Amino acid sequence: xxSTNQIIIRLCVAALLGSLVGLERQRLDWAAGLRTHxxxxxxxxxxxxxxxxxxxxxxxxxxxxxxxxxxxxxxVSGIGFLGAGTILFLRREVIRGxxxxxxxxxxxxxxxxxxxxxxxxxxxxxxxxLIILAVIKPLEKKWFSSxxxxxxxxxxxxxxxxxxxxxxxxxxxxxxxxxxIIQRSESPDEDVVDFILSRDxxxxxxxxxxxxxxxxxxxxxxxxxxxxx
Length: 229
What we know:
The chain is an alpha+beta fold.
């Protein structure tokens, strides 16, 4: 049977490792932040200990055979429901939150490792996770920036701005529109229009476009972003 000191140590280590990953997500203001990752890691460690040591009192009974991995296996599949809550489908082909969901799944694995007493594996996995989240991200942006969609979001007054004129402005700047998405704004007189541009659109042309759009009547706001494909 596991000792009281080991129970406390494993739960505290799980909370610490989960908080390290959670802090990185909290820094980016994601829904699943510090407390969520800590809870997942501590809960996973607790479940692992229950799975491994919680039935020690009946192991001496005849014809009783236990598989400690069965309960722990449910964590691996069950964490998917929590991870799904962090995924946002902004529109077709644009999804956010997959990295956070994967982080929760990994943190659950870290918790299981701590609960099983595999401290080295848990610490190594946490360090690798932090490297992936914090270090790889700027490199990914640098290397794969050309593969991201260019999105120009315009908030326009329905009665003072014309989509035809806006499209003509795009054509004057030699920008190719791939898709146009129109949504109703919270204001009854405004529309939110997303212009999806070709992936090879340069920043200089986007700046030229923004300057022209700001001079047009009825344009309330212009935003530019790069989103993953």
